[in-house]
TrEMBL record:
<keyword id="KW-0479">Metal-binding</keyword>
<keyword id="KW-0813">Transport</keyword>
<keyword id="KW-0408">Iron</keyword>
<dbReference type="InterPro" id="IPR008168">
    <property type="entry name" value="Cyt_C_IC"/>
</dbReference>
<dbReference type="InterPro" id="IPR050597">
    <property type="entry name" value="Cytochrome_c_Oxidase_Subunit"/>
</dbReference>
<feature type="domain" description="Cytochrome c">
    <location>
        <begin position="37"/>
        <end position="112"/>
    </location>
</feature>
<dbReference type="GO" id="GO:0020037">
    <property type="term" value="F:heme binding"/>
</dbReference>
<keyword id="KW-0249">Electron transport</keyword>
<dbReference type="InterPro" id="IPR036909">
    <property type="entry name" value="Cyt_c-like_dom_sf"/>
</dbReference>
<protein>
    <submittedName>
        <fullName>Cytochrome C oxidase Cbb3</fullName>
    </submittedName>
</protein>
<dbReference type="GO" id="GO:0005506">
    <property type="term" value="F:iron ion binding"/>
</dbReference>
<feature type="signal peptide">
    <location>
        <begin position="1"/>
        <end position="23"/>
    </location>
</feature>
<dbReference type="GO" id="GO:0009055">
    <property type="term" value="F:electron transfer activity"/>
</dbReference>
<keyword id="KW-0349">Heme</keyword>
<dbReference type="Pfam" id="PF13442">
    <property type="entry name" value="Cytochrome_CBB3"/>
</dbReference>
<dbReference type="InterPro" id="IPR009056">
    <property type="entry name" value="Cyt_c-like_dom"/>
</dbReference>
<keyword id="KW-0679">Respiratory chain</keyword>
Length: 116
């Protein structure tokens, strides 16, 4: 049986969504603290740390909401990343500095639909 990539992605999303209904509360993921030496690749970090819940690099809803064009203000996004939300999103304040979280918010604000 051949599955196209989009079909596989849809099935995987459905399975993960169903599994999340019975999952334990969200706990902080083991994000590797970003280096302080200026080599902070936000897109790569987002894909590896945030992309599991915020699909397509934050451009689409997944387990978490779509972040592109979020109506939330920057302070809200910063605080949500730093402190998390009980049962929904882990806190990353221990993994990233405030300046690094600001870079993540800037990445979110710069999201545009993918061409193609």
């Amino acid at each position: 049986m051949k599955l196209h990539l989009k079909t596989f992605a849809a099935l995987l999303s459905a399975v993960l969504g169903a599994a999340s209904l019975h999952a334990a509360p969200v706990q902080a993921q083991s994000a590797t603290p970003a280096p302080e030496n200026g080599t902070f690749d936000v897109e790569q970090l987002f894909a590896g740390t945030c992309g599991f819940c915020h699909s397509d690099g934050g451009r689409a809803a997944g387990k978490g909401p779509q972040l592109m064009n979020s109506p939330r203000d920057d302070d809200f996004l910063h605080n949500r990343i730093k402190s998390g939300k009980s049962g929904a999103m882990p806190a990353f304040g221990g993994a990233f500095t405030d300046a690094q979280i600001d870079l993540i918010v800037k990445y979110i604000r710069a999201l545009k639909p993918r061409e193609g």
